[in-house]
Amino acid sequence: MTATGIYSPKPGAAPLSRMIAAQAVLETKMLLRNGEQLLLTVIIPTLLLVLFGTVDVVDTGDGEAVDFLAPGILALAVMSTAFTGQAIATGFERRYGVLKRLAASPLPRWGLMTAKTLSVLVTEVLQVTLVTVIALALGWDPQGDPFSVFLLLVLGTAAFSGLGLLMAGTLKAEATLAAANLVFLLLLVGGGVVVPLDRFPEAAQDVLGLLPISALSEGLRDVLQHGAGMPWGNLGILAAWAVAGLAAAGAFFRWE
Asked: Which segments constitute the ABC transmembrane type-2 domain (predicted)?
């Protein structure tokens, strides 16, 4: 008689939670090792905060410049990671067939998207921490309810992630690269990040106020600078963009 052996490791796929965690760690490492991604997510927001916070370049109204700038830079950090960085990285992964190969692995497609989302959140935690430390060193005096800030950041991340994935999953990689960077620059100037929206014509203010970056930056500013309560209007705009962007990405995203 032949005894039945017990073999280790046991053949088969790893638990789903472990696969998602491993993919999220890999995505985060690749992002942090990419010089272009670091430029977008860390260096540019930090330089803007230090430059405009210490040099009187833009009239930010009454009070300290850093009190106006810090909420806008936090919004820019979210956009740079959840939208611009994710769109470019995912677009080139799609072009080179990485997404197609990963889709054929034991990790389900929704698990891959979950891992990418976790990577974005981890990066944003690092960004928010860095921006907060620098802003406090420049004399920032934040006000308001942290839970309101948390909701704004979460909905802002969802809105920009949906738009970034939609762009990456429908356009060619080169077009995504150009479009994502162009949108980043346009929203940096016209989204209330470093230039107050009231500096624009009234007709333009109504349109710009509906953009996700404007809703996020103005909502954060209302809470952190002015100590306002829950910014329901801005949260509603971000929620609408999040639902529309994620739904469109789910419907039109192409894996190859």
From this structure: 32-256
